[in-house]
Amino acid sequence: MTHSIELIEDTETLALAQALIKNPSVSPKDAGCQALMIQRLAAMGFDITPMPFADVENFWALKDSGIPGPTLVFAGHTDVVPAGPLTDWTYPPFEATVSDGWLYGRGSADMKSALAAMIIACERFIHQQGDFIGKIGFLITSDEEAAAKHGTVRVMQALADAKIHFDYCVVGEPSSSKTLGDMIRVGRRGSLNAHLLIRGKSGHVAYPDTLKNPIHQAMPAINALACKQWDQGNDFFPATTFQVSNFNAGVGVQNVVPGDAQIEFNFRYSSASTQADLIGQTEAILAAHGLDFEIKWSLSGEPFLTEKGRLIDAAVASLRTITGQEVILSTGGGTSDGRFIAPYGIELIELGLVNETIHKVNERVRVEDLAVLTTIYTDLLARLVGNHD
Question: What's this model's pTM, rounded to 2 decimal places?
Answer without folding.
Answer: 0.88
